[in-house]
Structures are given as C-alpha cells and as structure tokens.
Amino acid sequence: xxxxxxxxxxxxxxxxxxxxxxxxxxxxxxxxxxxxxxxxxxxxxxxxxxxxxxxxxxxxxxxxxxxxxxxxxxxxxxxxxxxxxxxxxxxxxxxxxxxxxxxxxxxxxxxxxxxxxxxxxxxxxxxxxxxxxxxxxxxxxxxxxxxxxxxxxxxxxxxxxxxxxxxxxxxxxxxxxxxxxxxxxxxxxxxxxxxxxxxxxxxxxxxxxxxxxxxxxxxxxxxxx
Length: 225
Prior knowledge:
The chain is an alpha/beta fold.
C-alpha cells in the first residue's frame, strides 16, 4: 500500500470511535437525580463533547464549588465506566477497517478527547484498538475544552505531525470548531445523530458522512492535499 506522511488522523472518542451516548446520558441523569436537578435530552445534546467542568457550569451556573464540580464529574464517570464494563463497547461501523488501513499507510493516529484518561483506557481495552494508536490525549492533558483546539494541538504535537497535515474525526459541532481553530481538516460523523448534517457543516466540517464505511485512506490524504 502507498504510504502517506508525515500525516496524522486524530480521533474524538465518544460518538466517533464508539457509540457510548446512552451510557453517558444515563450516567449524567443519575447524578442529576441524586442532586434533584433537571437534566434532559436537550441538555445532553447541547453539552455532548465538552469537558465535565464546562458541562456542569453550562447547565447549573455557579451553583457548585470547584470541589463539588470535580466530585460530581468523577461520580458521573464512575457511573459510565461501570455501565460500559457491564454492557461492553464496540467500534462504530467502518472504524476498525479505516484505522487499520491508515496504520498500514503510515498515518500516525491519536485520540483527542474531552473524556478522562480512565475512560480512554477502558475503551481501548474493550475495543482492542490500542495497538493502532500512537498517542492518547484526554481531559487531564488540557486546561481548556472544545471548541478550544488545545486537545487536538497537544495530540498533533505528541504525534510529531504539523496541524495542517492532520485530519480530525469528530461528531460534535464544538469538536469540529476545535479542529478548524487548530488549523486542521475535519471529517464529521453523523451516526449518533445528536446534531445533524447541517449543524456539522455550519461548524466548518470539510466532509460529513453517516458512517466511516465510505471513508478511505485516500479520502483523508485528499483533504490534507
């Protein structure tokens, strides 16, 4: 196979590599009910893809202290990881095939996620995708959440690839905006369907697909140009 590079693909995780949306929704709902606070599907869609501190502040303003925000975020993730271990997690359609082909073509690959590192480690273990990644970048590696590009820029730096030679795979408008703010190309996946084709295009996605089954190594290389 023809090799490309030095090129990189940086993957968001939830909603892009794997469909964990219902697990995350249930985890947040349990926390909100414990607090006797409102949380519904609209709240979930409006905050999906952001870091927990930003989610809690967006939903509840200054109601909670910094320590309470940290504790609530951790409880939500404990809920999520327990459910993920029970139910299992599988890669979304086309993910494993595309990742393998990118690997064989010489692309370097990383995760760039707003999730805690423990979530990344668990998903890697459950999906057995860890050998295809050269770097993992998580919430702990950043101070600013999407749409700030920090998480993707850190990932690109760890891969040793310039931002303009990198493609981000995302599923949320804030993630698309982060990719574009970082000077990267972006493929948006609408499989989970929280936001829709129009919103992803409006955020700046270079390509929107329903699944990654239609995406090839040549697709990613062509976007980089």
